[in-house]
Write a structure and sequence with these properties.
The structure holds 4 protein chains of 4 kinds.
Chain B lengths: L9 E6 L7 H16 L3 E6 L4 H14 L3 E5 L4 H10 L4 E5 L10 E6 L1 H15 L4 E6 L7 H14 L4 E6 L9 H13 L4 E5 L4 H10 L3 E6 L10 E7 L1 H13 L6 E4 L6 E2 L18 H16 L11
Parallel strand pairs in B: 1-2, 1-3, 3-4, 4-5, 5-11, 6-7, 6-8, 8-9, 9-10
Antiparallel strand pairs in B: 10-12
Helix pairs in contact in B: 1-8, 4-5, 4-9, 6-7
Chain C lengths: L5 E10 L2 E11 L4 E6 L5 H8 L7 E6 L2 E3 L4 H6 L2 E4 L11 H6 L5 E2 L2 E2 L1 H14 L15 H14 L4 E5 L7 H16 L3 E5 L3 H7 L2 E6 L2 E7 L5 H9 L17 E11 L5 E11 L3 E5 L6 H9 L4 E8 L2 E2 L5 H7 L1 E4 L3 H5 L6 H6 L9 E2 L2 E2 L1 H14 L16 H13 L5 E5 L7 H16 L3 E5 L3 H7 L2 E6 L2 E6 L6 H8 L2 H4 L8 E3 L5
Chain D lengths: L2 H16 L5 H16 L4 H13 L2 H24 L8 H18 L4 H30 L3 H21 L23 E2 L5 E2 L1 H18 L1 H11 L1 H6 L4 H28 L6 H5 L1 H11 L4 H25 L4 H15 L28
Antiparallel strand pairs in D: 1-2
Helix pairs in contact in D: 2-15, 3-4, 3-14, 4-8, 4-11, 4-13, 4-14, 5-6, 5-7, 5-11, 6-7, 6-11, 8-9, 8-14, 13-14, 14-15
The chains are: A mainly alpha, B alpha/beta, C alpha/beta, D mainly alpha.
The complex binds adenosine-5'-triphosphate (2 copies) and magnesium ion (2 copies).
């Protein structure tokens, strides 16, 4: 039974499920560190997916699609940055609204631009190529997943490490953490919390945009309405479960992706879909309970008063 | 419009959801338009958005316009078709794909015997499978789709008694348009052995075909010829000639010849497979390379038409 | 003579509804310790914030060393040689002391931070100015005195030539204060210029060379310290003279109202914040609790008020054991409480004045019946409090955040006193208030006592403790270090207990009281 | 007074209205919509006209009112939690489980409608309530933020209902995964109003009135609001904030369950797996509550408005060929504009001394 469940294809599937969540969650982590509660990852990811497909279709080149996705994610993030940072609006309200806005906007633009509703698939849409790294990609089990993948997937793991270095070993990282912890203190030393928060939010837009590109040009090559289908929310949970630490965020994304992949497998083994569908969410809930001691800070962020 | 003494006829086609998520819905629109054109009238399409409020408001808007026929599609609109046809006895309705127990006289149903086509696909899979395992990736775990995956299994078993079948459901937020999930499911299914996988996921099918390219399996499509979207990876399709059916049924209803339920299967040319289609050569379907199996499928189709082979309807016993 | 180190000309800053600074002129000579005094809301902090580039003035100009400067941000001010120690510390609790000091001026190696260099330079700097800190310690674990040193180090690390200290002594013991003054003088002697803000005239007289008085946003006097007196400064500040030395008349206490026995409370990070505390408060007395901030006073009060769990021991109020009771039950049993933080705990900024005056006795039968408010009574109650306590408020429905600091505190005091509870806990009831407001609140506390109320007063202001208390407890490291008789001690005596200096010595030598936490 | 002067004054008056902070977000949203439609080659004026006409004329009016029932209901449900500072994103799960429970009672409970309907409602309320109390207890006992757990539990609720409908309670005579039909007698009746608006409209209006009374006039309303505005202040004043968290979640869940029940026994007449989720009503209700800053009167108005946008959006799509998604965009932009305190001209964000009574931007937990 176990060798039926665990094999290279499962690793591959887990990796594919993890990349978009991880990228978005890393963005959420940066915002969290800068003191901005970021729950519009879902909307920005969706915008990224749409723009990726649009760009790739227009130019018949996946590179342009990725560029579009990044720009779209960043542009959407400015809504939250402006509202929450410049106007001191409630980031939760703004985040929920941005998610709805992007669901509506992509759904609106799809027929308006491409003349279809629901799903847009077209041979002109250039998907992200998978590059196999000779030698490494032949490693059994892990090889194909880790070393025969898209450029965005290759980027994501080193990015996690790079963000760790950035946050904990560079001056900018120190300043960012300071801004998130005590904006007045940062300001009194000449660090503008506004500027840092803007950059943090825009980075999360870029990362969520990339996540969308991976989803729409890597995992599959098409756009479907609401295709982020909750992954952005899962990324929010991953930030929390991972305590806004790169390693923790990676672990949380992996946990979710693994339980999702496992859910697909278990369905193949005869478990009803109604149960396997709930598996990743139930596992996440259990992980939250297990790690509950650590959420005081988030609780303060998310409860008024 | 407004049902005055205008020349031609008016038709309104109401969908239960966005047309793009399901080629089936697009065919309904084609059929309605074709009928209008042939009979010298006009047609409109009211596209709903999957929730009951929009479906209801679209049907009511259609009734307000009092066209000659309102064409509704899919089992999703079953309840409303029943309710509105009874509430508006002077308005003629067509409902495709489902039928209430006691339809009103002004409601005419057109249903397909999809299980017949699926059975034929099963024969192909049973013959072609090298692992002896086949599978289906199905949008939702609802009884309706048993016509596809159960009959697929039955067909395969008819040529290879030891064949094993598995089924997985896409589910999630957006089952009919979540190619990413469909792809993951197909990949994980294929990793467990099946090398012939039936994609019954409408807008999600693209994901299964992509998976077919990555893992080595062959896929089967639904409703239309999906082979060109993934040449070399799709064996054949369970065709549903919705356009033809709508076109015919509209004419019958206008002429007062339609019965309460019109059923369309292989015999009526309402369902089929590309293997038996005149355009097979240009279809880009894998089955075109297997004339021996095509012959076997043809024989089975004849048996179904003349009644010597009975493909049970998984829905009604 | 050389140009003044700093010159402000006609600085004006308006906030909606207030002119915080009104054409303020201020000249500071190089190498001076220059005090700035004024009542609450006089505009001191605003002026300093402008000087430090935190926000731009609406009008006026700033000259540093004779040169006109314009500060777009604190960074510009830092580059011009300004350094500021804020009234409320501006430190990052979860970062190390070194990280706090080098923040925004980090030593680097390539793109990475050079942490070794940071630790080294902070240690060196600390040694040079005798500001003992542990560069690697996390700020949140450090006591207040150290935090202030870190703040000063931050400015020195940036080589500030002009150092602004906004109410730096408010949280210090007299001993720590004296050490601070030594540091300030040393800094002056090293050629720096110091701007020093305080409400305490004794400090002005002790340390400054010159003094500028602000009143209602204007600079009303520039004086040479050696040529003036506290009385003259006060006259400039308030436009009248006040008695600075009133002491409470001796009074005869009655029955015990609050009895605390063997109380142990766990604070942040699981450390024991209050250890084996025992005392009683009687009706008709004010029991003062003195101590350096962070020695368990807050936790003690929170445990009595029900905002923090007691780990051991008992709290009895009017004969009823309330050790584990909920806040509402404690209030019903007769507890009123003026909390330390009037902005975050004592009031709700977004709620109306009326709603703020209601909390805690909104279930009083006069104000509601079966859960439905008697709206007329609720409003009448609010109006009565506003009138009795002379609160300057607009409409009852205005948010309470529209009130000034003094009036906000009056809202809290009015609400809590109107409970007619036998016990009133007053924690830092006059912190940051101006003299008039302080006088008013002191008067209220005394009359409450005279009417037979029991008061538990916690204050960092020793003059306040001495002026009001019938008895004094001193807390040090979570223990009650001494019980003192206010008539027999002086501020420096209390200060010695507050720093634990007398703990080492056995009983004997301590003036004015007994060691330990026995009841009085 | 000469003509230009008067024109000036008129222009000024108009400006005063549309630059008003309560009006401007709508002006802004419709301008954004206008630009988007123009840029994608549509006719925005025709589209808006069709939207308006479709929402308030003919069967549109009844559909708008019918759609407003669950939107207002879910908004009232969430407002109970939000104004106490409890961020309940679990409305969907509470609604779906409540809906199924209500449906099951309506289907299997014998007896006259006058008995079965209230019992079904009660079953829906109790189920929604219990489900909502899970994340509440998670927050008070385990310190897990309700924001996250209530959201995750939505997915679990979907699976639970999906399982129950697919296996034990499946009606295998239909082609959908669905329960049996609700018997005629156990349905919530329609009123003879605009051609049959559900009686539940009266119910939500009463609920709105009750909420208004409770929020404005009662001790509980005061205590919950104080907790929402400043939890430390409330705790200090003797309000049992933790118990209250559980209480407001219970109320929010009960109302959510009630609305779920209405959607089944008052509208769809079958519990079809996934249908309530697809409707997105819980989220629309949440947005309405945010827009209305949790105030019942505004919730009724905003709920009607959003229902009208949705129904009108369908008509716009039918007749003007502009996707109904525009309605969703408009809803979201209004919220963004309000939350960002967008305004024209003078600087809106006053310092802490501002006493002016203006429409407060939407804040979770702040009224
Ligand atoms: N950001 C602000 N927005 C609005 N008003 C402000 C702001 N900052 C200060 N004020 C007001 O300006 C006036 C001057 O305040 P400031 O803080 O400078 O006084 P201060 O002299 O430092 O008082 P304190 O002794 O209480 O510290 C006060 O009325 C204050 O309420
Ligand atoms: N967060 C806030 N929101 C609204 N008003 C505030 C806020 N913080 C302070 N104020 C107002 O600004 C004025 C000055 O603030 P400040 O923090 O200097 O208070 P304070 O009374 O001087 O207390 P302290 O000196 O003890 O810190 C006060 O009068 C207060 O009413
Ligand atoms: Mg000040
Ligand atoms: Mg002050």
């Amino acid at each position: 039974m176990f060798d039926q469940l665990f094999d290279g294809a499962l690793v591959d599937s887990v990796m594919r499920a993890m990349i978009p969540i991880l990228l978005a969650a890393l963005g959420g982590m940066i915002c969290d560190r800068a003191g901005v509660f970021q729950i519009s990852l879902e909307g920005m990811m969706l915008a990224g997916a749409f723009a990726a497909v649009a760009g790739s279709y227009l130019a018949a080149a996946s590179g342009l699609g990725v560029l579009f996705a990044v720009v779209a994610g960043a542009a959407v993030s400015l809504v939250l940055a402006f509202g929450a940072v410049s106007r001191k609006g409630d980031p939760i309200v703004l985040g929920i609204a941005v998610n709805l806005l992007m669901l509506g906007m992509t759904g609106f633009l799809l027929p308006q631009i491409f003349g279809v509703r629901g799903v847009f698939a077209h041979p002109r849409i250039d998907g992200l190529d998978r590059f196999a790294i000779p030698g490494l990609s032949d490693i059994p089990l892990l090889g194909p997943a880790l070393f025969d993948n898209t450029i965005i997937a290759y980027l994501s793991l080193p990015l996690t490490a790079a963000l760790w270095v950035f946050l904990f070993r560079t001056p900018m990282g120190l300043r960012l953490r300071g801004v998130g912890e005590r904006p007045q203190a940062a300001e009194s030393l000449g660090v503008s919390p506004t500027v840092y928060k803007y950059w943090a939010v825009v980075s999360s837009g870029v990362l969520a945009g990339l996540a969308g590109a991976q989803l729409a040009l890597g995992n599959v090559v098409q756009f479907a309405e609401n295709m982020s289908s909750g992954r952005g929310w899962i990324a929010v949970v991953a930030v929390m479960l991972g305590r806004a630490h790169p390693v923790g965020v990676l672990g949380a994304s992996l946990l979710f992706a693994f339980s999702e992949g496992l859910g697909f497998r278990l369905q193949g083994n005869g478990l009803p879909v109604q149960i396997t569908d709930a598996l990743p969410f139930a596992v996440t809930l259990i992980a939250l309970i297990a790690a509950r001691k650590r959420f005081a800070r988030l609780l303060d962020l998310t409860t008024a008063g | 419009a407004d049902g005055e003494e205008d020349e031609g006829i008016d038709l309104i086609y109401v969908t239960p959801g966005p047309i793009g998520i399901n080629p089936f819905l697009a065919l309904g629109e084609v059929g309605t338009e074709r009928a209008a054109e042939r009979l010298g009238g006009t047609s409109k399409t009211f596209e709903s958005n999957l929730d009951t409020a929009s479906q209801r408001s679209n049907i009511e808007a259609a009734i307000d316009e009092a066209p000659d026929v309102i064409v509704l599609t899919t089992f999703t609109l079953l309840e409303m078709a029943d309710e509105f046809s009874k509430a508006n006895p002077d308005q003629k309705f067509i409902l495709i794909d489902a039928c209430p127990d006691d339809p009103a006289p002004n409601l005419h149903c057109g249903v397909f015997r999809e299980h017949e086509g699926a059975y034929l696909l099963g024969i192909m899979a049973g013959r072609l499978s090298e692992t002896g395992q086949i599978g289906s990736v199905v949008a939702l775990d609802i009884p309706f789709f048993k016509r596809w995956w159960q009959s697929f299994e039955l067909g395969a078993a008819s040529v290879n008694a030891s064949v094993e079948n598995s089924v997985v459901f896409i589910g999630g937020e957006n089952a009919f348009a979540d190619p990413a999930r469909a792809k993951e499911l197909a990949l994980s299914l294929s990793a467990q052995g099946p090398d012939h996988i039936f994609a019954v996921g409408a807008g999600s099918n693209g994901g299964v075909f992509e998976a077919a390219g990555e893992a080595d399996f062959l896929a089967y499509g639904v409703d239309i010829n999906e082979c060109p979207t993934a040449p070399g990876r799709v064996v054949d399709n369970n065709l549903k000639l919705v356009d033809a059916l709508v076109d015919q049924l509209v004419e019958k209803v206008i002429n007062g010849e339609a019965g309460p339920v019109e059923s369309f299967g292989l015999a009526e040319g309402g369902t089929g497979v590309m293997a038996l289609h005149p355009d097979l050569a240009s279809s880009e379907c894998v089955i075109a390379d297997h004339p021996d199996i095509i012959a076997e499928v043809e024989a089975a189709a004849e048996g179904i038409i003349d009644g010597s082979i009975v493909v049970p309807d998984p829905l009604f016993g | 003579m050389a140009a003044p180190a700093l010159e402000l000309r006609g600085i004006t800053k308006r906030f909606p509804g207030v002119v915080a600074n009104d054409a303020v002129d201020l000249t500071v000579r190089a190498g001076d310790i220059h005090a700035v005094v004024g009542e609450n809301g006089a505009g001191k902090t605003t002026l300093m914030s402008i000087l430090y580039g935190l926000f731009p003035p609406d009008e006026g100009e700033i000259l540093v060393g004779g040169e006109r400067v314009r500060f777009g941000s604190a960074l510009d001010a830092i580059r011009a040689g300004m350094g500021m120690v804020h009234q409320a510390f501006r430190l990052f609790p979860t970062l190390s002391v070194a990280d706090n000091v080098v923040y925004r001026a980090e030593p680097t190696r390539g793109v990475l931070m050079d942490r070794a260099a940071a630790l080294r330079s902070v240690a060196e700097l600390a040694e040079r100015y005798e500001l003992a800190v542990d560069p690697e310690a996390l700020v949140e674990t450090q006591p207040v005195g150290v935090l202030q040193r870190v703040e000063i180090l931050k400015a020195l690390y940036r080589d500030a030539r002009i150092l602004i200290l906004d109410e730096p002594t408010a949280v210090l013991t007299p001993q720590e204060r004296d050490r601070l003054f030594t540091v300030i003088r040393r800094l002056r002697d090293s050629g720096r210029t110091i701007l020093f803000i305080t409400h305490k005239l004794g400090e002005v007289m002790a340390v400054s060379d010159r003094v500028t008085v602000l009143r209602n946003g204007r600079s009303v006097a520039g004086l040479v310290t050696a040529e003036t007196s506290p009385e003259e400064i006060t006259r400039h500040m308030t436009g009248r003279s006040v008695d600075l030395n009133r002491r409470a008349a001796p009074h005869r206490p009655g029955d015990p109202v609050l009895a605390v026995a063997g109380l142990e409370v766990t604070g942040e990070h699981g450390r024991t914040a209050v250890d084996d505390a025992a005392f009683t408060v009687r009706s008709g007395e004010i029991l003062g609790v003195a101590g350096v901030a962070g020695n368990g006073q807050t936790e003690l009060i929170e445990a009595i008020a029900g905002l923090r769990e007691a780990a051991a021991g008992s709290v009895t109020l009017g004969g009823a054991d309330i050790t584990r009771a909920e806040v509402a039950d404690r209030r019903r049993a007769g507890l009123a409480f003026v909390p330390e933080d009037r902005h975050r705990v004592g009031t709700s900024h977004l709620a109306s004045v009326s709603d703020n005056l209601l909390l805690g006795h909104h279930r009083h039968p006069d104000r509601q019946r079966r859960g439905w408010f008697k709206l007329r009574n609720v409003r009448a109650h609010a109006r009565r409090l506003i009138e009795t306590f002379g609160i300057k408020a607009g409409a009852l429905n205005n948010p309470v955040s529209t009130l000034s600091g003094g009036n906000l505190q009056k809202v809290v005091v009015a609400r809590e006193m109107s409970h007619e509870a036998p016990l009133l806990i007053a924690e830092q009831p006059t912190r940051g208030l101006d003299i008039a407001a302080i006088e008013y609140i002191h008067g209220r506390l005394v009359s409450f006592r005279d009417e037979g109320g029991a008061v538990l007063l916690v204050s960092a202001e020793l003059s306040e403790i001495l002026a009001l208390s019938t008895r004094i407890l001193v807390m040090f490291e979570g223990r009650i270090a001494a019980e003192l008789d206010p008539a027999a001690v002086t501020e420096p005596d209390i200060g010695l207990y507050m720093t634990g200096a007398y703990l080492e010595r056995e009983k004997g030598g301590a003036p004015g009281g007994r060691k330990g936490g026995q009841d009085g | 007074m000469d003509r230009t002067d008067r024109l000036d004054r008129l222009a000024q008056g108009v400006r005063q209205i549309w630059a008003n902070p309560a009006v401007f977000p709508f002006v802004f949203a419709f301008s954004v919509g206008l630009a988007v439609v123009l840029l994608t080659g549509g006719n925005p004026f025709f589209a808006y006209q069709e939207m308006f006409v479709g929402a308030v004329t003919g069967s549109g009016l009844r559909n708008t009112l019918d759609q407003a029932v669950p939107i207002i209901g879910m908004a009232l449900a969430v407002s109970a939690a939000f104004r106490a500072g409890v961020i309940n994103l679990g409305g969907e799960g509470q609604m779906v489980l409540g809906g199924l429970a209500g449906a099951l009672v309506a289907i299997y409970m014998p007896g006259p409608g006058a008995l079965v309907v209230p019992l079904a409602m009660a079953a829906g309320m109790v189920t929604g309530m219990l489900w909502a109390m899970l994340p509440a207890l998670g927050q008070t006992r385990l310190r897990l933020p309700i924001l996250i757990t209530s959201l995750l539990l939505n997915y679990v609720a979907r699976s639970i209902t999906g399982y129950l409908v697919r296996f034990p309670f499946l009606d295998d005579s239909v082609t959908l995964t669905s329960t049996e039909k609700i018997p005629e007698a156990a349905r919530i009746p329609k009123m003879p109003l605009f051609g049959g608006v559900s009686l539940s409209l009266v119910l939500v209006l009463l609920l709105g009135g009750l909420a208004w009374l409770v929020y404005k006039r009662t001790v509980v309303g005061y205590e919950t609001q104080m907790a929402g505005l400043n939890g430390s202040f409330a705790r200090y004043g003797g309000i049992g904030v933790e118990r209250q968290t559980v209480g407001v979640m219970a109320v929010a869940g009960a109302v959510g369950g009630l609305i779920g029940t209405h959607l089944i026994i008052g509208s769809a007449y079958r519990f079809i797996d996934g249908e309530l989720v697809v409707s997105g009503l819980a989220w629309t209700g949440l947005l309405v509550s945010l827009l209305a800053a949790n105030r019942p009167g505004f919730i009724l108005a905003a709920g009607l408005l959003f229902a009208g946008l949705q129904i009108g959006g369908q008509s716009m799509q039918r007749n003007a060929g502009v996707s109904w998604r525009l309605a969703q965009v408009l809803q979201a932009v209004v919220i963004v504009a309000v939350a960002s305190r967008l305004a024209l001209g003078r600087r809106r964000r006053k310092g802490r001394r501002s006493a002016e009574a203006e429409i407060e931007p939407a804040h979770v937990g702040e009224v």
